[in-house]
Design brief:
The chain has helices spanning 33-48, 62-82, 85-94, 104-115, 128-135, 160-171, 174-188, 193-208, 223-226, 245-248, 268-281, 286-296, and strands at residues 11-13, 19-21, 118-121, 139-142, 211-214, 217-220, 239-242, 261-265. It is of the alpha/beta class. It binds fe (ii) ion (FE2). Residues 4, 158, 162, 167, 208, 223-224 line the site of fe (ii) ion.
Length: 301
Amino acid sequence: MFEEAQLYAPVTTGEDGSVTVHLDEGHPGFADPAYRERRNHIASLALEWAPGKPIPTVQYTEAEHEVWHTVRRELATKHERLACAEYRAAMEYLRLPFDRVPQLEEVGGLLGPLTGFTYHSAAGLVPFEEFYGSLADGVFHSTQYLRHHARPLYTPEPDLIHEVVGHGGTLASPAFAELNRAAGRASRRLSTPEARDFFARVFWFTIEFGVVWEDGELRAYGAGLLSSYGEIEEFRSAELRPLDIGEMGVLDYDITHYQPILFAAESVDQLMEVVGGFFESCDDEAPARYRSLQRARPPAA
Ligand SMILES: [Fe+2]
């Protein structure tokens, strides 16, 4: 699988019921026992949770509120210059707090009246069917931990800031919320590894790392760009290609580096038409259909 979920640190439960989040050696919190203990605790809350119960409330520490505050403020400044208008408007309506970490229950409460989306708690990796499929029902699976406080502007994993500032902001837009729902419906029609892989790549290059032209300027609408303090400043240097489902669906990408190739929509309307249209028609035959379309295409001049 080439889904973003690969980025999440693995979580295991021991025979005694103890939960361990396995951070990579290069993770900023790897050598910090208190941070690791914290991660284990937050993951255990998610594992104890089941749909139907209230989302676990995490008692965030002052250090965690400070991380949120720093990143939220810095990203908001960057969004004015670099985020697309649809996202900026959605964030205005969503009204995420600046000074403290919001609870997932609260984020769902803010999203509900706007687009009907709500959040579920996840310890880490969520299986393909569950993560993507739930989008069709207006449910977004989210982790609840924050990045390490030593490097608030960097995280090797998608943390709460990615899930809420990145995805939550886009899910507050009726247009983007519908695109996510359409992706969820598409994922439920897929059963072959090839079709799922094709779909996940399109999701990556659009909902996670999509960019769009607005008044001659390139703007971000992908959650991965919108939540990344570093990458949001770099995406205008990427190699840009027009929206092309057949190309996105087979292009490799490296999850550990800034994306060198991005696909730019001409407008949000074009995005909805091309990518929304793909999600509406996507099934197990999609990879073969797009392969034959690519073959039938005359070579570029
Ligand atoms: Fe994401």
